[in-house]
């Protein structure tokens, strides 16, 4: 009988460890250097220029280094809070601004080993988009994985026929009749906020962080009007989504680097845990609604319509949404419902605080169109100047500062080929502040530019994209418009707004375009 010696065991273990290390090294070499370099050379042959990547980080290191420009800008703004500029692109995205000067309005940059086609040329975007149907646009797979805890496979991330099917089920919830039913809850929640403000003012506290207040109220509105949630459940979902957003977008990120989640395991586990908690809560709300006896009343909100439309697909093979898909849609619209609306209103209040003449013009219009009686939402569409102000606020400070797509097939634009699988990054902020599109006053607040033109007299129809473009444009924009008009009308009939000396102008991108330090305003009753 032969015995295996310790040295022989160690030799075997050493060989196994060596083989594993060699396999790992080979895998990393392939995914971190060989494949991305092949992509890089292919894109150069297709006619694209751009900053030279250093794999496996791509251009991330340069992007992080350039962010120091933003920090110095923020510091200077803190020392001169009232000297505010709307020329924000070079401060929120200093790397894009710098690369534009070197490579123009269309170029390739790299997030890790993922190439992104950067576009701020509306003509190029128009030519490219005319060749692609809405359902054949993809979403960058790197973002689908990164943002899965927040959106899952909801409409924002869905692709192909799945996107078509989800949109078909969701669209009826945003009909004019259904939006009017939600209006009552919007009015109630806004009046509740107004009462809170009056109480603070009567206590001698005139400075109010309108961003925090508006975001909270918008969260309450979307919870009640869209999902029938009580205050407790609505606040839970709202708080968890905000925490998830901060966890995802406020930490050091290496999106696009292969195996990034493994190397950043703490953040990965934290976001997964938060996502599972939100899923569990949303699932319990859906289950309770499905088992509720009060079907007719519940059908009036977004969740009710989702379930009603979904039930209508039973019996059709693979047509009904799964409970996981329902949860994903609810998360997507809960986040989108309060984030986009609240930021649109928040940035508008800042602009009105800086331009009191426009505050007065809007009040005069409200008195003329709506009157002093109880708010009648049927008159809100006649507030033309409010529409101009809203459009200009969305131009200067678009809550969705960029649009992402992925080419699911080769796309040819003139003599350039966009290869299948290329990620696309459309810089909305850059286009909205481009003087070649808007004139020398591109960075000035001028709502009258929208007086006779829904595109604000932009020199190109694709130069104004506050809600995306084409068939994949934001499905809930009419809900946003209605809530915007209701909240702003009620606020302007009760208060006047001035900029607080403590305000620091430092817009930042954290998925959405938001103020870093909130928006404290001096709020005075009329």
UniProtKB/TrEMBL annotation:
This is Cytochrome P450 family 72 protein. Its main location: membrane. GO terms for cellular component: membrane. GO terms for molecular function: heme binding; iron ion binding; monooxygenase activity; oxidoreductase activity, acting on paired donors, with incorporation or reduction of molecular oxygen. Belongs to the cytochrome P450 family. It comes from the Eukaryota. Heme binds at residue 474. Keywords: Heme, Iron, Membrane, Metal-binding, Monooxygenase, Oxidoreductase, Transmembrane, Transmembrane helix. The gene is 25479755. It is found in: Membrane. The lineage of its organism: Eukaryota, Viridiplantae, Streptophyta, Embryophyta, Tracheophyta. The chain crosses the membrane at residues 12-35. Gene3D superfamilies: Cytochrome P450. It is a single-pass membrane protein. It holds the Pfam family p450. The keyword Heme applies. Its cofactor is heme. InterPro entries: Cyt_P450, Cyt_P450_CS, Cyt_P450_E_grp-I, Cyt_P450_sf, Cytochrome_P450_Monooxygen.
